[in-house]
Amino acid sequence: MTVVEQDDRIVVVDVGLRFPTPEMVGIDLVLPDFSYLRGRARDIEAIVVTHGHEDHLGALPWVLRELGEERLPPVYGGALTIAMARSKLEEHKLDDVELIDLAAAETVELGPFLLELVHMTHSIPDSSAVSLGTDLGAVLITGDYKFDQTPVDGPPADVSRLAELGRDGVLLLCGDSTNVDRPGFSPSESVVGPHLEDVFARCEGRIVVTSFASNIHRVQQALDAAAALDRKVALVGRSMRKNVAIGRALGHIEVPEGLMVGAREIGDLSDERVVIISTGSQGEPLSALRRMAYHDHRQVELRQGDTVVFSATPIPGNERAVNETIDRLYHIGCDVVTPRDAPVHASGHGYAEEVKLMLNLVKPRYVMPFHGDFKRLRLHAQLAEAVGVSPRRIFQADNGLPLEIDGRGAGFGERVQSGMIFVDGVEIGEIADVALRDRRMLSSDGIFIVVVTVAEQDGHSVSAPEVIFRGVPFLEQADELREEIRATVEATLARAAEDEIREVDLLQRMLHDDLGQLVYDRLKRRPMMLPVVVEV
Predict the structure, then answer these.
(1) 3-state class of 527 per DSSP?
(2) Is 14 annotated as catalytic?
(3) pLDDT lower than 50: segments of the chain
(4) One of 119, 252, 349, 380 is an active-site residue; which one?
(5) Is 380 a residue of the active site?
(6) Sign of the CA dihedral 248, 130, 50, 317?
(7) Among 21, 283, 335, 515, which is disulfide-ready with 307 (CB 3.0 to 4.6 Å)?
(8) Are 419 and 4 in contact (CB under 8 A)?
């Protein structure tokens, strides 16, 4: 999410989310902290989305709902992007948002800004760079892009328009840094199709192809490969079916007559006639492929002789989940093909030479690398220097550190609140560090609950403590440890009574510390200790 502001008017570019890391126990989605926008819905001229991937579009329903104003800003994007946005908003029952399909090269005045989308190539159709004209020149946000000279869905990136913007004067370039560490040029998406067909031709049993559901190009190439080999295709996974339906409605996907079958019809076909296109390329816990790998899918049961083709690479952070899924597939007896085994994937992000080409085309006055980790931001800055941009005009920023530009120059302003907010179930908010820490402790070492009943007059125990534990792996020692816990409780209460400690919170703290030490000494674990003191 990027905020561009002039004269107290705002345009928001992209509203993405990411998925939680393993230590974010119980968290479902991670959103950017958009506190800066709260209470300012009337200042927002528009939200502009570069393309339909979740890390650029996924937070839109949450952001619009949390802005909480009667007048919500309009949303602009390409045709497929807007169709995906509409589908998301309908699920959240946000029906009163104005969604505007803006064609590339059209311009729209948004308060002090002049908005234009510039056609780019990526791994999803209708990807655009966003040009926002300001009093000082254009701010160009590239979105995700590559300079694919043989794209599978139409014309290549609009290099001539980028050059025209450069001639007219680009004030600031905010550029994708994802693949700046890879030398040369990225391979074209069009090379994937023939390799998929080659892999399919060598398979004797059923084929499962998994990719991002939003990678419309890849789905089309899998469909083409299946048709060429006279196989039927079933779509598995809710988002896969939904996005393919949107792609077909907009003409981005063409399906030959009779090619598609329902998932329930797979069992009626011989194995050599079946291709399944599925979600789950990132090992997501509830995805179709993950459920198939654990024999938990209602319609598809994988077996020995099936081939699973991963037509995607793991997003950084997802490697463990993907490897676990692959291992389960091998355990079943499936053959697995990944991009390491065959060229069945092409990245949608340009390599170093493409980043240089972007810099040379638009000739920006200032450069702010983004969309990458700190290593890649630095490498992007070095590429900008290599093509002649002065180091004083390159700004490597952190989230929440605004770049302020005026007629005198550019520099960082005062930091604003940024970071992450979490979606837990249907609730949105900041999950405190202590809450995540407690969840990790519960998942790792379990919980002890000790209920103690004491006399209000003197603080002595009036009945045997009740000990409850869950998720603690010590069944053989359970009875013995219970007795030790009870003895420790009695000793702690006696000490508290001798010191005339009556406050419940102090008693609970003493019990917590003494019981925690006992359990660690016996089990070498630190489960959550929850002492409860009841006065009678």
Answers:
(1) coil
(2) no
(3) 426, 431, 434
(4) 349
(5) no
(6) positive
(7) 335
(8) no
